[in-house]
Specification:
Distance between the termini: 47 Å
Family: Belongs to the BchN/ChlN family.
Number of strands: 14
Low-confidence stretches: 1-10
Radius of gyration: 22 Å
Strand content: 15-25%
CATH architecture of one domain: 3-Layer(aba) Sandwich
Mean pLDDT: 89
Cofactor: [4Fe-4S] cluster
Bound molecules: iron/sulfur cluster
Number of helices: 18
EC number: 1.3.7.7
Structural class: alpha/beta
CATH class of one domain: Alpha Beta
Subunit structure: Protochlorophyllide reductase is composed of three subunits; BchL, BchN and BchB. Forms a heterotetramer of two BchB and two BchN subunits.
Helix content: 40-55%
CATH topology of one domain: Rossmann fold
Pathway: Porphyrin-containing compound metabolism; bacteriochlorophyll biosynthesis (light-independent)
Length: 431
């Protein structure tokens, strides 16, 4: 396996911005979380705006039995004329009576529920007393006051860890803490690939968080090692560590280099012999190289500007620069977890601007004057940039698409290459 050497010069100092920002709120993460967790229902306690956001973020998906909904708070609730807890109990009782397939109910807080200080943690506790053990009820905040869209997942996973069985209680029932927890929602296809590699390493006791089924939440204790599969999980990491779990430090598994580093870090932590690692990862690594070679001619030398959106930006920029030869102008991220992203930042090419937070007007000006070939940004900024004749890529697509792992390295490059290729075709047609 390749050892990864950080670049000799560090990136330029971080630009910290505390102005207006344009990102989706944490409710958005329900879209990928509800697909992952087959027996879980997400009930947003919010306003019509929240319901509209979910509906439009979910696109035109039509389900016979959807697994998310919004309990809409109306004027009476907001004015304090109705007892919100009674109302919520009624909604939940109706929902669970109609949907016996639901094993876990997740109450999701929003801006309105937060503004009126509706205590969803207390509501979840009370509902748990009524419906456990058949159904579990947990809560977290997806409010836009506090969260960007990937932080919704972070809050949810932290809530799952908080109510996961502790090592002490589990030992009394004969259960052992997990050896390895992979934290971060991955599409099933990526999870299956990683599970195969780790089984090939000889690791038997591996748990993915979130699991596909709500009952599969692992026991966490001081014997547990965990590795992050997503970079936006600061609260989840803190929750795992509060149970005694220890983090395996690695790059995030994006691109061939990131995936190799991530798997090698696990292998090192569990003393997996090098020849075994090579036997498991050699062929997929070569396939990733071949897939990337196909996209490199188009991406090499392209100047790319990342606006802050998902916290995936430093890893995406590292991949694009080192594996596709692109030139990175600025890497924005809503938040930077210094420890978790240290490896990613160290591998950015010298002189790249890194910005944390957002002052959107100033950043738009910086972007215009840098005049990049491709702008990776949220939907709200993409349309005005396109109207100026600039090429954009919606950053939310990187959160929805399966992009982690060797077999997806080519697809990840393709996401960046597609707008550039489309522009090339349009230019050819115009000539
Ligand atoms: Fe809007 Fe807040 Fe509801 Fe998100 S949680 S849709 S930001 S009102």
């Amino acid at each position: 396996m390749n050892q990864i050497a950080p670049s000799s010069c560090a990136p330029a100092p971080t630009i910290r911005q505390r102005g207006q920002h344009e990102v989706f709120c944490g409710l958005t993460s329900i879209i990928w979380l509800h697909r992952k967790m087959q027996d879980t229902f997400f009930l947003v306690v919010g306003s019509r705006t929240c319901a509209h956001l979910l509906q439009s973020a979910a696109g035109v998906m039509i389900f016979a039995e959807p697994r998310f909904a919004t309990a809409i708070m109306d004027e009476r609730d907001l004015a304090g004329m109705a007892d919100m807890h009674d109302e919520l109990d009624r909604v939940v009782a109706r929902l669970l009576a109609r949907r016996p397939d639901i094993r876990m109910l997740v109450l999701v807080g929003s801006c309105p529920s937060e503004v009126i200080k509706f205590d969803l943690a207390k509501a979840a506790e009370r509902l748990n007393r009524q419906h456990a053990p058949e159904r579990r009820v947990v809560s977290y905040s997806g409010s836009g006051i506090e969260t960007t869209f990937t932080q919704g997942e972070d809050n949810f996973l932290a809530a799952l860890v908080a109510e996961a069985p502790g090592a002490g209680a589990a030992a009394a029932e004969g259960a052992r803490p997990a050896a390895l927890v992979v934290a971060g929602c991955l599409s099933d296809i990526v999870e299956d690939q990683f599970a195969r590699y780790l089984a090939g390493f000889g690791l038997a006791d591996v748990h993915f968080l979130p699991a596909r089924h709500s009952r599969a939440t692992p026991v966490i204790g001081p014997q547990t090692r965990y590795i992050l599969a997503q970079p936006y999980l600061g609260a989840t990491a803190a929750a795992l560590e509060s149970r005694g779990a220890r983090r395996i430090n690695a790059l995030f598994p994006l691109g061939e280099e990131g995936t190799t580093d991530w798997l090698q870090a696990i292998a090192t932590a569990f003393d997996v012999p090098a020849d075994r690692v090579e036997a498991v990862t050699g062929a997929p690594r070569r396939r990733a190289h071949a897939a990337l070679a196909h996209h490199r001619p188009l991406l090499a030398g392209k100047r790319v500007f990342f606006f802050p959106d998902s916290q995936l930006e430093p890893s995406l920029a590292r991949f694009l620069a080192r594996e596709a030869g692109a030139e990175i102008l600025e890497v924005g991220s809503p938040y930077l977890h210094r420890d978790h992203s240290a490896g990613e930042l160290a591998l950015l090419p010298p002189g790249v601007s890194v910005s944390e937070g957002q002052d959107v007007d100033l950043q738009i000006e910086r972007c215009r004057s840098a005049n990049p070939d491709l702008i990776v940004c949220g939907m709200g900024l993409a349309n005005p940039f396109e109207a100026e004749g600039r090429l954009t890529k919606w950053s939310i697509e990187f959160a929805f698409a399966p992009i982690q792992g060797y077999e997806q390295a080519g697809d990840l490059a393709e996401l960046f290459a597609r707008p550039l290729r489309r522009q090339g075709l349009l230019t050819d047609l115009a000539e």
